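Annotated sample (chain length 106).
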Amino acid sequence: MTAMDEARLAADIVSVLDPAALRACPSERDVIRYAVRGNSIKLRTIIFDRDALRRLLESGDGVVKIEYLKRDLRRALTHRVEYRYPRPSVARTRADQPAAKTRAAI
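Output written by the structure step:
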């Protein structure tokens, strides 16, 4: 995979959508956010966690995962109001892991 930053990766993932329906929101420190507009779609917000995108860039099988995210985003257009990567349940699990390791060490 070529060298790329999180913003470019997020733009690459949302490139599967109609550019007229997308609007990038102002940059935030931890997330990249897009607003989605359109009468025929249910999706209104896309949120990418910068740390998760960075890990995806460094992953050996990142290209496959990015293709999966693009396909998942297309599916979410008519079924979800908000698309978030990583999904909240996955992010919560990752955040809890260091605490569990600390408790086990005590």
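Annotation: The longest strand covers residues 31-36.
Annotation: The first helix runs from residue 6 to 14.
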